[in-house]
Every structure is written in structure tokens, then in C-alpha cells.
């Protein structure tokens, strides 16, 4: 079952659950809308691949994490609770996060394959790593490890 199919099935279930699944239904509808907009605005006007769907979900997660940081600064408990619940719902659709050891091994392979020797070649390494870890690692985390390995 693809992520899009799972989202559709979960949306139907949340509709049946009425009040119990209200927030879940809103979040799923929002993600499905984001996916559909990405398909419409895409260059090839076709359905998104599984990796592209995961990228859309990762973007939604990142937006909420950024908002959460601001809500914490502003001490907005009501928004903090809701955003945490939304994050929990969204993260359920992402594959398990990679450990630092797995990520470091993939980055070392990428460094060797592109022949990177210093920080100036960080872009080449990132370009090689990102498709392999799509949806399983945050870009900031990858960036930090690449920087450390290229110094």
C-alpha cells in the first residue's frame, strides 16, 4: 500500500470516527491537499512518486517543527499541544528515522563516490545523499554530518 493509498484509507476511517478523528481528519486532508497541489504544480503533471509524497509530508513536518519552536518561545500551550498532536499524526506516515551510524555510513559512501575532499564540494555530497535517505533523515542533520566529515 502506497502512502497516498494509506492516507485515503485513514481519511475514510477518520470520517467514520467523527469526533474522535476530527484533528486526524483535518491533518490528513491538509496533507492530501498538499500532495495534490504538488501534482498540479509539478513539471510533468503526473502523480507523485512515493519519494516525492514523502518529501511533501517531510515539508509539512518541518513547517510544524518550526512553528512549534515559535510557540514554545511565546509560551502558547494551546498551540504547542495541537502542533505536537499534528506532528504525531504526520510522522506516522514517514518511514522510521535513520540512526546516526546508518546516516554516517551512507554519507561516507557518497563522499567516496563523488571524490569530495573538502567543504567546497559539500553540494555534490548532499546531491548524492538526499535521494538515498528521502523521508528518513532531516536535511539539517545530514548537513551537519557532511560538514563534520568534510573538514
Describe this structure as you would to a colleague.
This protein has 151 residues and is an all-alpha fold. The protein folds into two domains: 3-92, Hypothetical Protein Yqey, Chain: A, domain1; 100-150, Orthogonal Bundle (Arc Repressor Mutant, subunit A). The chain has helices at residues 3-16, 22-41, 50-73, 77-91, 100-114, 122-133, 139-150. The longest helix is centred in the middle third of the chain and has 24 residues, at 50-73. The model has no long low-confidence stretch (mean pLDDT 87). GO terms for molecular function: carbon-nitrogen ligase activity, with glutamine as amido-N-donor. Pfam families: YqeY (PF09424). This is GatB/YqeY domain-containing protein.
